[in-house]
Amino acid sequence: MTRLTVSAHFVTAALAGAARDGFDTDAMLLDAGIDPTLIHDEQARVTDIQYTQLMQVIWDRMQDEFMGFAPGRSRPGTFATLCQLVIHCDNLDCVLRRASHFYALFETGVTLPLRVEGDEAIIELTHEGPLRDSHHFLQESLLVIWHRLSSWLIGQGIPLSRVFFRYPEPPHVQEYRGLFHCPLAFKQPATGLAFPARFLDRPVIRDELEMREFLKTSPADLLARPDDRNSYTARIRALIGRDFTQPLPDFEWIADQLNTSPQTLRRRLKAENTSFQEIKDNLRRDIAIFHLMRDNLSINEIAHRAGFTETSTFHRAFKKWTGLTPGAYREGLR
After folding, report:
1. Closest CA to 100 of 90, 92, 112, 88
2. Name one GO molecular function term (predicted).
3. How far apart are the first and last CA of the chain?
4. Residue 112, in any domain of the structure
5. How many domains does the chain have?
6. Whether residues 184 and 241 fall in one domain
7. Could you read off the pLDDT of 207-229 as tens digits, one per residue?
């Protein structure tokens, strides 16, 4: 199976608190199987497995699930304890309200209260005192984690109607396309997300056994894997598949399979902050990175697997995606 990849920006951002507090971040990267020299270029990418391992290393070394970004420390095991509490909730409304009350018991200074306005449910991040989060990593992470955990608990992807941020649009805003498939707004009075309130009545379908398995890699893997199963982006990825050695379906065929017109599908992809070309490029990129991490295929063969007829074209595309040539990227993994 081809692995997903994560931008080096999120690697640097995750380590910012540890670096500020004097931890050996190179050692953390090596323990996660990441070459420290690889992340100097923010266009570089790591696999979802490496990223999950890195998050677990950071939490363990710092003894803080908030990674040094919050006014107070969230001791390891806090998130797991909360999950064991909410698994007994009847519905999502109970989950989110119980989670907010739980975090308010601690002196971390960070909570995510829920409110309902008309047909919209809103979760806003609140914090006592300033966050030491120059990359906005903690804020982005908490929104992603709680959206994806909520979707997992009720067994269906929750479509976001909007996500809003207190801070200005950051340089890495393009990476938000893989996190939030909805309209984004910056320089707002608060940071949070909104979704249709009808999902609050959805029952929790998971049990304690499933939660124990889930917690073996969470919440780290929630940050590394997308939870957009109901999005047009995910449905198009599924229709394209992973075999780029064969001719790809065209956009008109894709639209027909999704029972929509090409014009409507373009508008819906734009609303999800992406395009048909970007979806194809991202799939090619992740296929190439997957194979570059294995030494049994030549660069020429990898180019073919990623759907390129000319190796030189593959080199140019890969450097545009990651800032490195395929050979340099592979060398950095050794």
Report:
1. 112
2. DNA-binding transcription factor activity
3. 21
4. yes
5. 2
6. no
7. 888 888 888 887 877 776 655 55
